[in-house]
Amino acid sequence: MFPSGCVTGRDGSKKRLPDHEARVCAFDEQPKKPAKGWIWSRRRELLSSARFMHELGLMSEAVRMALEAASAQGAQRVTGIRLRVGTLSGVVPEALQFAFDLVTARTTAEGARLEMERIPAVWRCFACRGEFQTDDPWPRCPACGQTRAELLQGRELEIASIEVM
Ligand SMILES: [Zn+2]
Fold this sequence. Notes:
The protein is an alpha/beta fold.
């Protein structure tokens, strides 16, 4: 469920990251406090302060890992970061992008591209063992109507690859 990430150089060479560095897990983190007002008025349709702090913390950690991985390879700059984002990961992609722009400013990843691959939620029914896809966190099996199912994918929030030069 959690494939390792890798670093991709401009020449196409790939290097695996250690498993513990290759993913950012967000599953158990929920904002502790209710939102209090909006922080950037132009984003107010998307982001409350509590909501955004969640994505900011995650992105800050992801960029830190990317910069470390790039520097360990002797790369001058990080030019792109690709994330795998499950539809049930609990993050808002627009908030991730906004956080990315903030946390990469004045680093060697400034101006880098952020790509997000959306991973759909896939479930396996406990009763009939059928697999089905829905982003509903309380799914109902379309084949047998059971409401108990195991989530096979869809919670991912991990670094897939990093482009450096
Ligand atoms: Zn079923």
